[in-house]
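Page 37, top half.
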Amino acid sequence: MKKISKYIVYGFIFSLALILLWNPQSVFANEKEDTISKGVFIDTVEISGMTVTEAKEALRNHIQGLRSKSFALVIGNNTMVVTMADLDYKYEPNNYIKQAISLGKSGNLIKRYKEIKDIEYGKVVYPLTYTYDEDKLRDLIEDAAVRYRISPKNASFTRKNNQFYYTDHKMGSMMDVDTTFSSIKEKLDNWIRMDFVVNASMVDLEPEFTRELLEKSNSIIGEYSTVYTSSSQDRAANLANGAKLINNAMLYPGEVFSSYTYLLPFSVDNGYYAAGSYNRGRVEQSIGGGACQVTTTLYNAVLAAELDIVERYAHSMTVSYVDLAYDAAIAEGSKNFQFKNNTDMPILIEAFSEDRKITFRIWGHETRSSNRTIKYENKIIKEISPSPSEKITKDPSKPTSYRRVTQSAKKGYQAELYKVVYEDGVEVSRELVNKSYYNAEPAHVTVGTKRN
């Protein structure tokens, strides 16, 4: 047995000697010239016969190929394509190439021989561990959820011929971020290195106001009318036009009504005519004259509905169609009337003009107690007499004997408006609504200056 063992050892040494004679560079060559033994893989990349530089390039090409692959995320009727590079797909650092280049070339002769024989009977595979940025994946999904969100549409309504007409609500949809993220992550964690498709998990979005809810806004919560029996034909036409432009304006809770949005521009193309309006203390003809009576009538309907007043201005001088402090002026670029729907339900403004009377009705959901009533009271704080000195306009086309009062003197006032609340007929609160100041204006007189 000792002799046999000795022969075996001699044979083993002889085989190693033959290997070294046949491939001496495997041990003694310098690293720049070294190549990797046959049958060596890193992941699915065969690096047999490659130098270190070539193996690194092969791995670089491999990861670039994987990073160029993608998956499609189907979001309703939209599709978003995400590449693996978008997720910073990469493999964890390793020293596999260094290990591969040294196979059969380092250690004692027995170790080298064994490694070479192992490669001959089966390939050597170094597994790679891949990673991707989960935070980037979630960010992409969250951005897509916002971008491709289909907002629901509230029901709406109008009123015509004493009847409501409704437009039904529409459902919306949005991606469920967490569920979709989990579906994609499961695919990526078990990725077979092929492009793939994921259908996003979607959830329905219901609008805040369905038709069924909107049908509850069927009560008149505020109404007011003013007359214009003595107005010119053109001024009457302007009031009718203003009512038509505002009619069926609808406000959801929290929305603000701006008179500018509905009534401007004051132009012929927008249905207006030239009529009297205030300008620096005198009545002058201007396109849209009379629009202030439109906003004033609406103001009083809004007060009755107890909606929030956002912006309101008194006229520069008193008006005849409402008492002091009950008016709301409009002037392009300087005076606007705005209010907010402070109720929990949509409101609809119905406006119409007939028989020289303009009316505003505000429809909504009545929730105020039946034993509660409100009343508005004005209070004159100060009366201001006009200057006795007349404002003279000279007319050279008229004789010196000509004298005509073109505008009567107007008193000025400082007034306040109060909201008084009663419960079971007993006053429970009194609140200041506005402070109004109206200028006094002397008489305007035109005199002739033409001499015979």
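Page 37, bottom half:
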Amino acid sequence: MQILDGKIVSQAVKEELKQQVIKIKESGKRVPHLAAVLVGNNGASETYISSKKKNCEDIGFSSSVIRLDENIEEIELIEVIKKMNEDDSIDGILVQLPLPKQINEQKIIHLIDPSKDVDGLHPFNTGKLVQGLPTFIPATPFGIMLMLEHYNIPTSGKHAVVLGRSNIVGRPISILLSQPHQFGNCTVTVCHSKSNNIKDICLQGDIVIAAVGIPEYVKADMIKEGAVVVDVGITRITDETKKSGFSIVGDVMFETVAPKCSYITPVPGGVGLMTIAALLKNTFQAYTLRKGE
């Protein structure tokens, strides 16, 4: 069993970007700029935004955060997005989800200029992804693909089982794994809350992507010997043995599943780190396309 270490892979991605930014600075040009919008003060969102900002600083990107009140009216947020779309100094825009209930998330996502949609959620970019055209890939699926590539994990002809069908992870990773490229060409089965015989389907998986948001949902009796398991989940659970009072666990029961795997991602330290690395790559791509380089 080998750990798919998100720290190692994300550092490699960031180091490559850092070297490219150094060259940009040496040429006297402005550096890529990622701008984030945070509505309210959700603790998890605050942590994620802070991490994105720090990672931008680490590699030399410019970053900014627009903080808005929890009770903001939708029209006010719309105006903020429009101004960001028109701002030529901004290359990538992300709106931290979830948004408050008075705001229509889909409407806001659709308003973002597709050329700045580094989260890869705009229908324009989703359509290009489906057709196999170059586009911004949602960060978590993109991060998973970067990890498979880094560890040179064979995928062609393999049966990939994806647990979850969200637009952020499940659907896009199923598309990417089925596409005709070196780390694709899988036969893909997508399971969800209405699927029958999930355990039997998982046992057929050479590659299992767990993205259901249920702590330790995937048990050892659901995974065959030698499978590659990628755990996308991350949940806080009460743990009185910890000073913090909680532990971080994934969708996979790591301790019992790991011994059966050829490769497995840990939680934390796996896909989460790759999500941010992939977002940075998307931002650099947006910068390059906008600069015509």
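Margin note: The domain at 139-272 is CATH 3.40.50.720 (Rossmann fold).
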